[in-house]
Amino acid sequence: MVNAVWVWGLARALGGEVLLRLEDHDRTRCRAEYEAALLDELDWLGLAPDLAPTDHFRDGGPSPWRQSDNDAVYAAALASLRGAGRVYACACSRKSLALVVPDLANEEMRYPGICRERGLAHGPGLGLRVRLDDGVECFDDAVVGPQAQAPAEQCGDLLVQDRLGHWTYQFAVTVDDLRHGIDLVVRGQDLLDSTGRQLALARLLGRAAPPVFAHHPLILKPGGEKLSKAAGDAGLRELRAAGAAPADVLGEAAWRSGLLRERRPVEAAALAGLFETRGA
């Protein structure tokens, strides 16, 4: 919910459009009913996107906003990287990496380059990685300020296709941001560390000017953990079933993410005003 408040509020304050992109790159976790439920919930909140996965391309063709409809696009991007000598096959699994990487639980585990020079032929059960150069990526985040990240040190060579043949989040969103002409990316601070590697990858794909990034605060539990349905935390469906009004939900999310000084309802049409008063 916080993300919706920030995305719609910033887009409207800046006179931009909201693109709702369905990032269903992991086919084992995505279902058509989840997409329908998401669109229904946004409609209930009064946050209909300007561009959505249900919008089709050229009269009934695949939607450019649904990743599972666009394998050919990602394959073409991969081919360009392969032509530049950047792509190699990787046989490593989390189980095998656990033998050589001490802190596997760390989300910022650096891939140590085990398969970089092995010259493996890509086939079933092998992933694909892109070689990243050493260096620092500097950018000025619109929320948290100046950042400097070293992707090669943080994550090592980037996995772009996993061992099951799924395109990874890091690769798919970077390709999509480039081809869709996205100039403002609004997302949670849990993804801040992904930015440097996406900037590096976008440059390899030919992007001259990167988008502006805005990483908003998250709603956290008292212990600092993120909210999770798997842990029994209430979601929008539960709040709606309990009788909450859309303005109550939006106002709560705005207050918890620092956009309001006090709890109060906020209508969808008023979200832009929360950012205009902040100098958006």
Describe the structure.
The chain is of the alpha+beta class. The protein has a domain at 70-218: HUPs (Rossmann fold, 3-Layer(aba) Sandwich). It is built from ten helices and seven strands. The protein has helices at 2-13, 32-45, 71-83, 94-97, 151-154, 169-179, 195-204, 236-241, 246-256, 271-276, and strands at residues 87-90, 127-130, 137-141, 145-149, 158-161, 184-188, 212-216. A three-stranded antiparallel sheet has the order 1-2-5. Strands 3-4 form a two-stranded antiparallel sheet. Helix 6 (169-179) packs across helix 7 (195-204). It is globular, with a radius of gyration of 20 Å.
Strand-helix topology:
Elements (H helix, E strand, L loop, with lengths): L1 H12 L18 H14 L25 H13 L3 E4 L3 H4 L29 E4 L6 E5 L3 E5 L1 H4 L3 E4 L7 H11 L4 E5 L6 H10 L7 E5 L19 H6 L4 H11 L14 H6 L4
Parallel strand pairs: 6-7
Antiparallel strand pairs: 1-2, 2-5, 3-4
